[in-house]
Amino acid sequence: SMFEPLTWASFNAILAFPVIATGVFDRDVDAKQALDHPWLYATGRERTDLNSIKMVETMVSAFLHSMILLGVIFLAYNGLDMADLGDYFTFSTATYSWLVMAMNYRVAFITTTWNVMTVLALLSSFLMYITFIVVYSLFAPSLGQPMMHGVCWRLAAAPLFWIGSLAVPAFAMMTDVFKAYLMLEILPDSVDLVLETQKAGKQLQVELVSECSVQFEDR
User: Fold this and answer.
1) Distance separating alpha carbons of residues 75 and 93, to the nearest angstrom
2) C-beta neighbour count of 177 within 10 angstroms
3) φ and ψ of 115, to 5 deg
4) Rounded to two decimals, what is the model's pTM?
5) DSSP assignment of 78-106, as one string?
6) pLDDT by residue (tens digit) across 171-203?
7) Which of 9, 7, 13 has its CA nearest to residue 152?
8) H-assigned helices in the chain
């Protein structure tokens, strides 16, 4: 296995709350926009949010993120090994930590509606993981895995680990922003069109107000 068994078993528990919070609270448009554009309700009936294009888009994102993670792992291994962090338990924990970062970043990226609960859910995921890995590192010998003892402290003291923790979500964000731009330009859905129209309308209002202010000052 790529990851230490007990660490890998924590995956669903650690990452569940952000996904649940986004699923419960996220919405594409607000109530006023939905009332002003009732045809948006056709997205559910016509399955525009869950179709082959969306599935391919998600699979492409997953593939690109996995390649980014693999690339960072490949580039970081020699440096970690030189710092005496290349053993299976330490290196797999570093990789798993970067995976948690990437997964939580992805949830944050696709979240449209931010509120107290979504923020708390995201923070709780990181807090749960930090608590788990610290407690596991402390009591690993008692749990039958002595090689995990002190792993978190060795990683926390390695600058390369923190560089990787920033690099993985940063590169993932670059690919996601580029992909989102292409989808918006080539295959915009109905929600995208409504949001763009509203944004253009607000910009026009700002320009008109600015123009009127200038004319008033000239007088």
Assistant:
1) 16
2) 11
3) -145, -175
4) 0.81
5) HHHHHTT--SHHHHHHHHHHHHHHHHHHH
6) 999 999 998 888 777 777 666 666 666 666 554
7) 7
8) 5-9, 11-25, 31-36, 42-45, 52-82, 88-110, 116-139, 151-156, 159-186, 190-218
